[in-house]
Amino acid sequence: MTDPLMEIVQQQGIVLLDGGLATLLEARGHRLDSQLWSAKMLIDSPEEIRVAHRTFLEAGADCITTVTYQASYEGFARLGLDQADADDLLILSVALAQEAVEEFLASTASSSPRMHPLVGASIGPYGAFLADGSEYNGHYKINRHELEDFHVRRFTTLATSCADLLAFETIPSFNEAKVLLELLEKSQETYGWMSFSCRDGSHLSDGTPIEVAVELCEDAERLVGIGINCTAPRFMEELIRRIKSKTDSLIIVYPNSGESWNAEEKIWQKSETQEEENWVGMAEEWHNAGARVIGGCCRIGPDIIRKTRERLIT
Fold it and tell me: Quick count: other Cβ atoms within 10 Å of Cβ 143?
């Protein structure tokens, strides 16, 4: 097996990720106020997920991530679904993304051929399941073994799916990253990337220096990239510089729009700096700083991804 991200980087110099899948689903009129967030769409309207994936591919994404960020067995159980039912929904999430890829390739083969887009199976943090904003601080009230128990079955299901790689996303703490890397180590044929949430330009959300987190990742086999997501764009350049000082791995960045999440009211609040207005220009700066996998997270829609491709990929 070969590193799927590097193949695209070698061909076009960059991998363009998608944007906020939930952002697009909300823009299409769907309410995502369940604790399962966008993962509940696997039950309510799976066809809409496929359409959203296709929209990001048409905007220029080389890699799309599944709707499983906030999916959990505990969350599905609250709706009366057992673990086998949840397994089926996780596999469905990958199938929907793969279907969108195949449809996109079939529609563009003669006009504007592109490299085969990838599907990353999204694995969010324990804090996403809590739905209390703790993916932005990493302050969990469980021990390490409980954290592993939470992750292991979802990891195994997605790792054995037909996804091209796993996307560990918005990981706020050193301890959670360690648990996920140990699971990846046990898997023999699975690639993945590790993307942290950060509170500033030098620390994970739990306060761990980013350099320490990168050192943890350095020896992980089949980890194809290290980066940051769902973090304010203004912190990206410094984080890239700090990551680059500790690794030769691909650097991945897909920040949000610069708005902040109010966990109590469950709304996004505008930032004073209005970073979203210059997001595409900043993406070019991230590329110049050394990031080779770039995309968007919350509040970043297809139009920004399209403009980013036009700016960064000739």
Answer: 10
Closest CA to 22 of 65, 78, 62: 65
pLDDT greater at residue 262 or residue 2? 2
How far is 111 from 118, CA to CA, in rounded Å? 20
| CA 20/CA 83 separation, integer angstroms | 27
For residue 230, what is the DSSP state?
Answer: S
Q: How is residue 66 written in tokens?
A: 């599944």
**Phi, psi (degrees; rounded to nearest 5) at 142:** -135, 160
H or E segment and range at residue 251 = strand 250-254
How many other CB atoms are there within 10 angstroms of residue 44's CB atom? 12
Residue 53 and residue 3: Cα distance in Å, rounded?
22
Burial label for 207, CB within 10 Å (0-12, 13-18, 19+), is: middle
Whether residue 268 contacts residue 262, with contact meaning beta carbons closer than 8 Å, is answered with: yes
Confidence of residue 36 (pLDDT cuts 50, 70, 90): confident
CB atoms within 10 A of CB 154: 21
Q: Is the pTM of this model over 0.90?
A: yes
Helix axes 210-218, 236-244, angle to 10 degrees: 40
Three-class secondary structure of residue 294 per DSSP:
strand
Band (272; pLDDT cuts 50, 70, 90): low
Q: From CA 200, how far away is CA 198, in angstroms rounded?
A: 6
The pLDDT assigned to 146 comes to 96
Residue 54 has pLDDT above 90, yes or no: yes
**pLDDT given at position 258:** 80
Residue reference for tokens 């769409």: 41
Identify whether the C-beta of residue 164 lies closer than 8 Å to the C-beta of residue 191: yes
